[in-house]
Amino acid sequence: MRRAAALEAGVASLALLTGWIALFAWRGLVEAPEEFLGPTLFGGVLVALTGALARTRRIRWYGALGLQLVVLALFVNLQMASSRSWLGVVPTRSSLDRVGTLVAAGSESLGTQYSPVPADFPGVHDTLMLCALGLLLLIDVLACGLGRVPVAGLPLLVILMIPISLLSGGLSWVLFVLTALLFVMLLATEQTRRVLAWGRSVAGRGRRYDSFDQLVSGASVRSSAARIGLVSCGIALVVPLFVPLAHLSFGGGDGPGPGDGEGRSITIQNPLVDLRRDLVRPDEFPMVTVRTDGDPSYLRLTVLDTFSGASWRPSGRVLPPDQRAEGPLPPAPGLLSTVPGRTSEWQISLLDTFSTVWLPTPYPVRSISVPGGDWRYDVRTLDFADAHGDAFHGDLDYELTAFEPDISAVALDDAFLPPSAVREAMTVLPRNLPEVITRTAEEIAGDEPTNYQKALALQDWFRDTGGFTYSLDRAPGSGMEALADFITTDKVGYCEQFAAAMAVMGRALDIPARVVVGFLTPDRIGPETYLFTSDDLHAWPELFFSGIGWVRFEPTPSDRTGAAPSWTTEDLPTAAPNPTPGAQESTAPRQDRADRQPGSADGGQSDGAAPALLPWLGGALVLLLLAAPRLVRDAQRRSRLSAGPDPRAVAAGVWAELHATAVDLGISWRPERSARQTGRALVRRLRSRPELQRSLEELVQFVERARYGRPFEVDPAVARQLRTTVREWSAALAGSVPPARARWARVFPRSVWCRLQGPSAGGPAAHPDARRSSDELVGAGQ
């Protein structure tokens, strides 16, 4: 018993170690990955030991799975919502709500943010831990509970495929080899246990021999498995070198960098990092030429709409194939069709000294035609990115039609409060935002009556009254501490600091804000023709106003940018007859930012409707999961009993259904026996039902004739009688076992999960019920 327990625990530990080592491939998904890898290991140990202990006690795999799920739920609740649990451990409704909130927030962040997702985004580590524990549990059930170690390679493959799909660095070959070797060891250990079970033990010698009196050696099995595994690993490492789609990382890589390696071109890939790098270059590089009858200034590259605390970044773009940069585009978010303005025609050329994953365009664009590459747009931002994330290098000419709305100070000042979906999503700030940033924003603009006047106060403070100086002699970065120093003490920076600081302070005042990176003002080189160079790269904030959409502001001092936008220099009427809804609502108390989650929706309808539906959805899912085995079993029965007209198919169907019934009821079916021997054993089991003996004998005779006799045609009446016999014997067998077991067989039929063995497949030791007591065997007492 102790040896069996130790062996079971060893196999479970090896399965856990294999899965956990594979999870190191997820390190690039999030900052500080140890915050989910550590708890995952601890929870995985609890789950693996629970399963091993249950299997040692001869508990069926589904019973062990139930215990493991309970342990997993308690651990997750303890890890994510201990303060809201009863006695710190037992889940409550409040703790379950907390777990759901964290998982929803983490899923949103992981699905929309670029990797690695910042560590201060709520729920990202918890969500990864929960996913990882689920995969580790699946590996344990497949490898240890069901004994299907090769199938357990599928969740391992899922784990290893994630970095290949999402991360530019791919999968480390060292991690791949280590995971593969551990998996081979797991496979060898399980197969050794199976091979040793085939032999017979010789008393007093501690050895096992097969039916030919040959010594069964576990060492030889493990040695063969190791050789096969090493060869397989070698092949798996060599093949990717010749298959372009494979993406294993064998070193530092040679991905897109700041240029072509010789300083003759520049690349825009990481917007803010590349911005300062190109601004401080000693040489000025031509990048884009434009021919237009409109205003050529403020040409956009991309929108940075997520502030992680460390930096502003683009959120994950949704770029389906039907959103290619070809043809008309949808209206700009928030911009009403009734807003007046003028259209302008643009012809843009990217020069061969410019490499980018973002397509330069004005804003907003009405239609566009790009003849080269796979450029697509996101409907939320209307910026254009390469669908594959690859930097385009070379000459590219494209045309577009832009729209320049007529924006006035009065229209901005009269704008209604932004929609709740926009306001909640685009005012998210990290929980640990330095208080000095919010306090300074309140001191400067908190008393202003409308969002427009608050934004105007911030812009004037940065440009004129705050004592700021534009200079490139500052380290790059827009982290929270750097921003706090910038707005309080340093007050020296370039466009990145000014744009980032105003956007953060705008969000602190509940104004939807984001940062845009692009080009400022070009040089005129001909009639309606302009040239943008590396010195024209720039960043600025955009704030949202209902009816007009995203509006540009300019906090960077005038010695760099010139005049501020016209709608920020107009005079407002001295008195308004009636306060606008925007003015009234902008002074309302704001939601506590500590309770916000990235990507959360409005607290109105969704906060009440979604939690109310969750119990119903959860109950429906539980009922579906409980009913699924029975539904599958019924479908299998109909398929088996409807086989025909071939006699072999009819015989195989009725015999397999009788076999499945025995497996469901926990009655061992000896696959090495012939049909006649099995029939006699069944008759002896049901001695109290002699009226059924004749019908079973006829069924056995039909099976033998179909298997070994000449081909013949099946009389439909005979086929119906055979099916009736199977149904009668299935009911009789169900009555021969305890009622609780019969009821369990109806709810969770075991035959759905196991493979029915043929008459010559394996022996009794290979069957999962071979170790049951003799009174449970078909034909017991023979």
Walkthrough of the structure:
This protein is of the alpha+beta class and 782 residues long. The protein contains 23 helices and 25 strands. It has a 7-stranded antiparallel β-sheet, with no helix packed on it. A 4-stranded antiparallel β-sheet has the order 7-21-24-25. Strands 5-12-17 form a 3-stranded mixed β-sheet. It is elongated, with a radius of gyration of 35 Å. The two termini are 29 Å apart.
Q: Give the count of helical stretches.
A: 23
Question: What fraction, in percent, of the residue positions are helical?
Answer: 40-55%
Spans where pLDDT lies below 50 across 5 or more residues: 197-216, 239-269, 576-611, 759-782
In total, the number of strands is 25
Main pleated sheet? 7 strands, antiparallel
Our estimate of the beta-strand percent is 5-15%
Strand order of the largest sheet: 10-14-18-11-6-23-22
Mean of all residue-level pLDDT scores: 77
Instruction: State the separation between the terminal residues, measured CA to CA.
Output: 29 Å
Could you tell me the radius of gyration in angstroms? 35 Å
The structure class reads: alpha+beta
Task: Describe the global form.
Answer: elongated
Spell out the blueprint of helices and strands.
Elements lengths: L1 H21 L11 H23 L4 H21 L11 H20 L11 H22 L3 H18 L4 E2 H26 L1 E3 L4 E3 L8 H21 L9 E2 L16 E3 L2 H9 L6 E7 L6 E6 L1 E2 L4 E2 L12 E3 L12 E10 L3 E3 L1 E2 L5 E5 L5 E3 L6 E3 L5 E2 L2 E10 L3 H5 L6 H6 L9 H11 L5 H15 L3 E2 L9 H11 L1 E2 L1 H14 L4 E7 L3 E4 L2 E5 L3 E9 L3 E4 L5 H4 L19 H6 L18 H37 L5 H18 L10 H11 L7 H16 L7 H20 L3 H9 L35
Helix pairs in contact: 1-2, 1-5, 1-7, 2-3, 2-5, 3-4, 3-5, 4-5, 5-6, 6-7, 7-8, 12-15, 13-15, 18-19, 19-21, 19-22, 20-21, 21-22
